[in-house]
User: Fold these one by one.
Assistant:
Number 1:
Amino acid sequence: MTQPWPYPSSLMIGCTARATNEDVIVDHSELEDARWFNRAEATLMIKRQHPTRLAGPHPFAIAHHLLGRWLHEGPGARA
């Protein structure tokens, strides 16, 4: 779930990073769940067409723009 930035006079930045492995360790006091998605799944989520009804972040969220950038760069792109 995403939400708009509640501090309009503050700066929000978005960062990208490259994972060194595919292990996911979830701190359940912070997150309910976490997992990896491939580009095909993420594309379906952005389009609101994922078969299990998972949805990507709304266009007003910075996460939407970060995800869209990753999707448009393609599989061979380097960060």
Note: The CA atoms of residues 28 and 64 lie 24 Å apart.
Number 2:
Amino acid sequence: MSVSSISPIDIRAVDKSAAWRAPAQPPPLSLYVHFPWCVRKCPYCDFNSHQQSETESEASQLRSRYLQALREDLESALPTVWGRTVRSVFMGGGTPSLMTGEQVDELLCDIRALLPLEPDCEITLEANPGTMEAQRFRDFRQAGVNRLSLGIQSFDDDKLKQLGRIHDARQALRAAEQAKREFERFNLDLMWALPGQSVEQAQNDIRRALEFAPPHLSLYQLTIEANTVFAKFPPQLPDEELAFEMQQRLELLADGAGYRHYEVSAYAQPGHACVHNLNYWTFGDYLGIGAGAHTKLTLADRVIRQERFSRPESYLSHTAERRFVSRDYAVPVGELPFEFMLNALRLTEGVPATLFAERSGLPLSAISRVLSRAEARGLLEPDPTRIRATPLGLRFLNDLQSLFLAQSRG
């Protein structure tokens, strides 16, 4: 079942004559830093991650080269963000917690030397329980990391083995305890609809996570992505109806524990929504450095996107030439509505209608007919002050978002 089968929307009536105008104020700016190595590639993962060198000596030398490349990458990007202040920094991967505390300190010192950070800048580092050492977590905090995102995925040994994770349930528990001890702000990542998983098993995972009272929870449904081991050898996943029941039960458990379901996969205690991800979802700007990192920036005459060289060896080999960007292009004006909606519609409360013009540079009238017809079919709330998906729209979010993709290519 899909939204398109429920009732098609004629997107030919969309107004494509509206001209783009630079926002009066540039959107907030975030910095993303990609660390491309893992101990081992997980069979479900389609991120730009690669198994690190077998010997610690080789891996350490490569990390040192990479840190130098990150600094040069950031230096080369400064003209595009000159004078702008960064509201959040996110170190993702891969497994950034493979870095030592000293290396994270070096990286953050370089960032602070080159970019002005807001006084309360959120600085997140992703960590794997399989790389957890108590001292390392303390070192990360002392280096300036003020938010840890811990990739638990499950507290069930059997499920962790099926997911190809390098940690077991005992290590997951120890890592969560240490995160709670060292960080006021931390996130626990969990996955549901795992191979052979029952509703009760999914609920047991979130109950275990809630024992640590994490300020933030990320609950992701396992999906089979192209170019992964699971795509080649697909496991037996719960069917659509069972997965939907799991989702409803998990939402009830989180709600009962005082968490607000503010984004499709994100739950937070009051005041602990992820600043970095909220900037993505409200179509803010972000500079991405590191192998395969993506950038979206609003300039005086256009919105641009950039992609860094993806494979670590290619990224590093271009460092001598101070070439880091493999692709750099202006986003076609007609594609901006889809790009905005791809993010904003993930927020359960939606966004103010005025934000569309503020962030996309296009008047709301450019999409008003599509909005009206989506509302008439129960996909968007009939509120002229907000753009917000209904429960039906959230359930079939891809279909709803695709309406704006179709109109941009129409």
Note: Residues 56-81 form the longest helix (26 residues).
Number 3:
Amino acid sequence: MSRCRGGAIVLALGILGTTDSAAGQATQGYLSGADGTQLYFRQVGSGPDTAVLLHGGPGLSIGVSWPDLAPLAEHAVVLLYDQRGAGRSEIITDSTRLRASDHVRDLEALRQHFGLAQMTLIGQSWGGGLAILYAAEHPERVKRILLVGPMPPTAALYALRQKKITAKDSVSGATVARLIAAIPTAADPAPLCRQLFATYLTSYFADRASAAHLKADPCDVPADGIRNFPFVSNATMQSLGAWDFTPLLTRLTMPVLVVDGALSVATADGMHVLARGLPNGRLLLIPGAGHYPQIEQPDRFFSPVAAFLHGVWPADATTEHR
């Protein structure tokens, strides 16, 4: 038995037991990622396929995506894990072990740990970028990909997104920067963390009142995991440099569904570029929703997404002109 920073106990077999979740009972534990890094995981749901949910961040936890996507566990076994360096996983303070390529190797280690010949990838925000990077390197291991509000495919489009968000809400940017700077040295970083995401995420909703229905809580993790979030985020994003995923998209010949809200003006540019670059990709824009359609329009989101997970293209998904 060993102990990771943040007080998380790792058992020899890697299984901590079960816990209740929004989608039923979940198995939780630890597994060894690349270079032996300890990664916290949960397994929930049932179905013939296994889907791995890649949360946003980097440097956050499964709490930023779950339980708002919990209904997906009605259609597949869903594996979730806190990515390296933060959350409930092993704390890493060496930037050379926090590259995007390290996250890709962790995902491959997870696949091998669970003995999966193929898996469906569900990537949200940064997790979408991780899904693209992994699938480009291991296309034979990926059955299909669901990208929910993925990160922009280029650094230039990311800068454009930030510009549009600032134009929409010029006040929150300064607040977000102040909170991020305060988190690493806070005695109790959880309140600052929750204030940060309450401020940051609301800018992405078409109707700000809908943010009240957000269940995500990436701050429900050990304090060390929260404090290390800014460091992990910076190290991983810097490792991407002036990224451009578009040349990689031609390698993704498996079905890929890109989903976002039709009213998410700030992110629309990236969604269209992604869909156009995918050989077997389609774009689904959910009416009446911003960047979080699973929250603002759940009835319009989960039904077509479930169809895709069962191998059927949603009726309203479109093929972009290439």
Note: The mean pLDDT is 90.
Number 4:
Amino acid sequence: MSKIERFEDFDAWKLARRLTHAIYDVSAVGEFSRDFALRDQIRRASISIVSNIAEGFERDGDKEFLQFLSIAKGSCGEVRAQLI
């Protein structure tokens, strides 16, 4: 098994990045684009997912990485709730 040396190699980070791009695309048109508070919040939440995966990976240990993954998971829930 190979060791992951960059956060960019995590499938979860790649998927979160694709999600962020999709959120930006969807929130840039129609009624969504005019609901400024929701648009901005869902964008921040999606960015939080990729950012926390990256930041946690760059920290100095597994315990901190797990903490940041937990925060990223919470942001996933926030995005899901806002999409509903």
Note: The CA atoms of residues 35 and 73 lie 25 Å apart.
